[in-house]
């Protein structure tokens, strides 16, 4: 079998420090002590962790991959929590055994940007959750979009009341695209209800300062809402009505300008900002420069931009071209730069922006300005990153775990309970076949949409475990109960540096000023004569020879 990743063989990472013989010795040896470095302190009550009831699982012989480590181990799961991780563990009497030899075991995916509960979604919540677990994702952070005239708190209550049909963990992020004065108090109430991020429209730094005060993440779509309508009008006047007009009305320079402005506002307000669906190389370059200067800006890259590009907008088939209508347009030749950002930016995450839109609602629209935007992707997101970034040698499996799970857990204050395989962590896991045995077709896809930009994507998720329950196995959904996940503010991975900068600003740090002043007058005795006089003969006499 051909290698599926540089450094892998038959789906297993061959680490230079662990030979195959050493692996076998580890698995055959007596049970060792718990892996102390990977132990997670239990910071929640037992009733608040996991959710697997009395179910017990024994995952045997897996190659465990975290964002910072790879090792061979057995994993014991009880009551929705990882109870033990180590080689050759004793099998609990009532445990269901999951054979994992030759496979990788990852923390299950966390998709930080979905629209499962969107009013125009072609799928219901249950269908969307099935798509998530089929792709190896156990937790999604869904966007709450208020209806016209609906308050933030009312929209949040409406969505939370409808989460009973979920099969996976669901956290929420609230869209607040209005003036700050109208939602200031409501934002505080929403945070108290378990929300730690808002999707906002930044017109100034006031709302960023308010987000910083609340300890929440400000998320912004990089689109200039003033200039884009003007460009759309110009494009329509030229007679361009198809999806290509969507790309042409949103040039890379405009996205880059918006990103640069957001980074400046982030730095001035000392507020972390996450920029959604970045798609252009120029925007990424602007972010890199701004981060070097101290901006607290983070990037969320859409999986659609990793697998596809803007050339599809010019396809003669309207159905095909319209299927690529994402929130921010895909760019020609943008994939490589986006993968590089996933590899290099510290808290970069890959999100799906999953929104099930029927092709009919797009093809029947009068022009590109009326076409609903969004693509499915929660089922294909992790596979897309694996195929385009890992198998091509751009990132390793540890970085894969970071951009599909761990970094999102850190940003949204879920780490280390989620996003890590360690004792005490929630049992959200995915058993991964690095080789991939089959390809995803529209007939097998969980979503009901009739066209997808991920057609033919190789499938890798074999078993998905949510809260200690197996919900996806052998290509089939096993009914389970998901849960609402409260997201607490003040994530230390975002706000520790904010608090430190605030301290530096408040104390009014002043550089030390030396009391030693060197001047000509100090050496010249206070008179105005020059401090030295050039003479022809130095002390001791004149010398014109070598000795």
Q: Can you lay out the helices and strands and say which pair or pack?
A:
Layout (H helix, E strand, L loop, with lengths): L7 E2 L2 E2 L6 H9 L27 E10 L4 E9 L2 E6 L9 E4 L4 E4 L1 E6 L10 H10 L2 E8 L7 H10 L7 E8 L3 H13 L4 E4 L5 H9 L2 E4 L6 H11 L6 H5 L3 H18 L3 E3 L5 H12 L4 E6 H5 L10 H5 L12 H10 L4 E3 L7 H5 L17 H10 L6 H15 L17 E4 L5 E2 L18 E2 L1 E6 L2 E5 L2 E2 L5 E2 L7 H16 L12 H4 L24
Parallel strand pairs: 3-6, 3-7, 8-9, 9-10, 10-11, 10-22, 11-12, 12-13, 13-14, 14-15
Antiparallel strand pairs: 1-2, 3-4, 4-5, 7-16, 16-19, 17-18, 19-20, 20-21
Describe the structure.
- By secondary structure, the protein is an alpha/beta fold.
- The chain is built from 17 helices and 22 strands.
- Strands 3, 4, 5, 6, 7, 16, 19, 20 and 21 form a nine-stranded mixed sheet that branches.
- Helix 5 links the parallel strand 11 (197-200) and strand 12 (217-220).
- Helix 4 packs parallel to helix 5 (206-214) and helix 8 packs parallel to helix 9.
- One of its GO terms (molecular function) is dihydropyrimidinase activity.
- Residues 305-470 form the Amidohydrolase-related domain.
